[in-house]
Specification:
The protein has 70 residues and is an all-beta fold. The protein has a 3-stranded antiparallel beta sheet, with no helix packed on it. β5 and β6 form a beta hairpin.
């Protein structure tokens, strides 16, 4: 299993970085123009990444594949 790290950019991007050591900017898994990310939380039991945006949206991603769930 590869080590994964999630981060957010200043212009609304959500990045997934794989492997260790982490190199490059990572892969953009989603982008919300005009928003910034207020919080990110990862649940290891359900393999879900929860992201809260400045426009009051809650995004849910599969942390293993990076696919957007809702």
């Amino acid at each position: 299993m590869k080590l994964k790290f999630f981060s957010a950019g200043e212009t609304g991007e959500i990045f997934m970085h794989e492997g260790a050591p982490f190199t490059g900017q990572g892969v953009v898994i989603d982008k919300h123009t005009g928003s910034y990310m207020n919080a990110m939380a990862l649940c290891d039991e359900t393999h879900r990444l929860y992201v809260v945006t400045s426009c009051k949206k809650i995004l849910v991603f599969d942390s293993e594949t990076g696919d957007k769930i809702c």
